[in-house]
């Protein structure tokens, strides 16, 4: 069940990015940290390019196998499908809030609120997957199902093709984000250099 290990690792990485941005925004709002727009842009790009465009499609493969095996959990799986379908709208709202803040620094509170909304949603989304979908997968999927799901999860690994038309190694991007984020979240090595 390599897919479950990969999903767990990806959820941890996503949670770390969400937590880091929230922490940094709180510090910027309080005046204890200077904003790093390039770092915020890189983090939002990561959220768009990786979880929204790479992570969710892999989960959709897992959910399709679940739906083929059982009607159990149908309501939760339908909700997860709806949430995946609305991912472009959520990221666009976040990008718009960041662009508004970049154009007008007085929009910081609006960007922070938009990010909090996004992070709250994402936390609930991952919890629904981990509470409902993943235990159901462990329960009902066959060895053949897991072989297919594992294949799908392992064939599309880093380096991945990003949304900017060039290959991106998301492990490298994640490392750079952590290095640029201030302590205690990251290493505080200075401004983001993508």
From TrEMBL:
It comes from the Bacteria. It holds the Pfam family Hemerythrin. InterPro entries: Hemerythrin-like (IPR012312). Residues 4-137 form the Hemerythrin-like domain. Coiled coil: none annotated. This is Cation-binding protein.
